[in-house]
Amino acid sequence: MSLIRPAQPHDAAAILRLIHELALFEREPDAVKNTEAELSAHLFGPEPRVHAHVLEQDGEVLGFALWFLTYSTWEGTHGIHLEDLYVRQSARGAGHGKALLSTLAQIAVERGYKRVEWSVLDWNTPAIGFYDSLGAGTMDGWSVRRLEGSALAALGATA
């Protein structure tokens, strides 16, 4: 039997293993710098700013949704940004990804949040089809921008 539940401190190692699997799937196997200690501190420290739910089946964590709050100045309320959604290949096709997203949607509705949003790689057509089947729309006219590395340091130095 499978269960979707909030992540607990003992889940940090399993979540990190799944993060590494996700990086491999996304063709970035060496990109993960996170450690179990850092992940645990961010998820379960005194003031967590990141949250996670896990898919557990027969005592094993097979998937996760890692998320944090956003804020819409126009809506005047928070939303949820889904940073990562991942279900191990062997557990796909059984509705687990939908169950994880449904859990986040339920949290948003219960708390009065107006949206759950995320990014998807443009080549990941199975995920795009899955998200489309749930009614998730594309934000036309928007592109994701990122400031990092030396550009981040250079701009920060001008403050």
TrEMBL record:
* This enzyme's EC code(s): 2.3.1.-
Which PANTHER family does the protein's record reference? DIAMINE N-ACETYLTRANSFERASE, GH14572P-RELATED
| Top class in the EC scheme | transferase
Name of the protein in question = GNAT family acetyltransferase
InterPro entries linked to this entry: Acyl_CoA_acyltransferase (IPR016181), Diverse_Substrate_AcTransf (IPR051016), GNAT_dom (IPR000182)
Q: Which organism is it from?
A: Paeniglutamicibacter gangotriensis Lz1y
In this protein, which residues make up the domain named N-acetyltransferase? 2-159
Kindly state which keywords UniProt assigns to this record, in alphabetical order.
Acyltransferase, Transferase
- What GO MF annotations does this protein's record show? N-acetyltransferase activity
